[in-house]
Amino acid sequence: MEGEVHELVRAALRRLGGDYPEDEWGFDEEFVRMVEPLLGLLHDVWWRVSTAGVANVPARGRAMLVANHAGILPWDAMMMSFAIQRRHTQPRHPRFLALNWAFELPYVSVAIRKLGGVVASPHNASRLLEQDRLVAVFPEGVKGTGKPFRERYRLQRFGRGGFVEVALRTGAPIIPVAVVGSEEIYPKLGEAPVLARLLGAPFFPLTPTFPWLGPLGAVPLPSRWRIEFCEPIETAGYGREAAEDRSLVLELSERVRDIIQGKLLENLVKRGPAFL
Amino acid sequence: MKTSATEGPGPSHGADVAGRRILITGVGSFFGARLARRLEADPDFEYVAGLDTRPPGIELRRTEYIHADIRDPAVAGLVPPTRVDTIVHNQIVRRPGPGMSSAAMHDVNVIGSLQLLAACEKTPEIRNLVVRGSAGIYGAEPHAPQFFSEDMARLYPLRTRFQRDVGEIENLFATHSRRHPHVVCTMLRYQPAIGPSLDSQVARYLSLPVAPTYLGFDPRLQLVHEEDGLEALVAAVHRPVRGAVNVAGPGTIGLSRLLRMARRMSLPVLGPLFGPIADGMRRAGHAELSTDFRRLLRYGRGVDTHRLQHEVGFNPSFTTLAAVQDYISGSAGRPAPASRALA
Fold first, then answer.
1. For chain B, what are the domain ranges?
2. In chain A, which residue's Cα lies nearest the Cα of B220?
3. Which has fewest Cβ within 10 Å: A3, A80, A239, B172?
4. Do B257 and A110 touch (CB under 8 A)?
C-alpha cells in the first residue's frame, strides 16, 4: 500500500515536470491508467457491466465500433473501452468521437481528449482509421444525446450515414455495439431551452437530480449494464469508391442500425429490471 | 537541382541552363536573412537579392540588398531589372509589435503583397512565387478537425484581423497564379515557430513572468522549429508545388505540458478575464499576445503535413516536442526574448 502511494507521488511529480506521453491527438495513456481504478469501480460495482462478444473486436488493425448513445458525457465510450481492457485477450484503447459541444467545456474537454476522445468529424475518424486504430462512433449524434427518457433504446436516425462513408473509404470493418444501461443513467424528463440558449448548449437536460442537486446531479444513476459487441461487417470488399454510392451507404447504415436495435431489445430482456 | 511541379505544367526556369535568380522580401527578418545566407552558398543560384527596410542582421556575402518599403509603388520599378525567376515573399507581419500599429501591419501584409504582385507582372522571367504564409488562416476552433488539411482553409469564418489579412493575401496570390498559369505559386502555411535564436510569439509568451492560460483548457499546439522553418523555404524554392502547403513539425503538445517542461508558472484565468489580464501585462511592459495567439491558447490547432512531406519532399527534423525541447535547452541562461535583438 505504502509502495503504491510512493509510486503515485512519484508519477505526480514527474507529470508536473511535463514528463508524460501524449500522442498527436492529445491521448494520454498514463492518464487513462491513472483513472482506470475509478472506471473499474463504475464497471464492477456501480453499473455491474456484463459483456458479450468481445472477441469480435479485432486485436489489431483498423475497425469502427458503432453504438447507441445517450447523455453528454461519454460514459458509454468509457465503459466500452474498459470492457475491452478487462475482457479482451489483447486489449487496446479505442478512440471515440465525442459531441462537439463537449470541447467547449472547461475541464471536460481536457479529460475527454486525454481519454481518447476527438471532435466528431469525419476528418478525424478517417485519419484515426488510416492510422489503424480502433474508433468508436455514435451515429445518433446530438439527437441521441438529447433523447427523452421515455424514448430510451429507440435508436434515432443515423444522420446521413457519414460513418459508413468513412468506413468504406478506409476499408474499416464495422462492429455494431449495443449498450444497455447507458440510457438510464441520466433520465431526461424535460428541457430548459432558455437556459440552453443562454449557455450556447445544444440542450439543457432536466433529470430527477440535475440541476437540482448542483454538481451532484451529474452523478450517473446506478443502472445495470450489458454491452454486446456484434459480428464485424466487412467493408473493404466494396472498394474506396463505394463511399460515393449513396444507396449503398444508406443501406449499410440502415443494416447497422437494425442490428443494434435488435440487439438492444434482446439485451434489455436479458438484463431484466434496470436498477436492481 | 531539378525542379518539378506536381500539378499542371512543370515550370521551366532558367535553372537547368544558367543559375537561378532569386529575390527575398523581408530580408531583414530572421528567416529572410538566413534564407539569403543559405542560398548564396548554393552555386545553383547565380543571383540573390533581398528587399526590406531593415538591413539583414547577419553578414551576407553576395546578396544584393535593396532598400525599399514593400508598400511603396516604387517596388514595381525595382524588381524587373533584377530579372529574377523566383521570389520568396517573406514579409508578412504576424503580430502588431512595438512600433507597428495593426493598421500598418495590415498595410504591409495586403498592400505589400499587392505591390509585389504588380512588380511580378512586369517581370516576365518570374516562374516561381513562394510565400511564407500562416496556418492562422484555419483559425483556432473548438469543433475543428484536429488536423487541418490544405483544403479546409475556409471551414470557419475569418475572425481576426490577421486572419483576414492572410485570407486576402492568399486570394491575391491565387488570382495571380490563375492569370499567369506559367507561374507556380506555393503558399506555405506556417504553424507558429519556435527555436533557441528566434523571437517568436511562443517565445514571448514563455518570457512572461507568469503565463496566463484559460482555466480548464489545455489546447494542443503544433509548432515548427526555426531550422525546419528555414529548410521548408529552401525545399519549396527547389521544388515548387502549386497551392497551399502546411508547414509544421509532426505531432502536437498540450499547452500545460509545454509550460511544465519550460518550467513556467501558469496563471489559469476564467475566460472573460483573460483579455484584461493579458492587456494589463502588456501595459506593464511585457510582451503582447495577439488575438490570434489568444485563440490558439484556448482551442489550439493541428495541421496535416502530408503534402509537405510527400509533394515538397521535405521531412522536418524536429517534431513539435523535439522543437520545444531544443528551445528549452538552447534558451537556458539567455536573456529574455523581449530584450534580445531581432536577428
1. 16-195+225-248+303-316
2. A26
3. A3
4. no
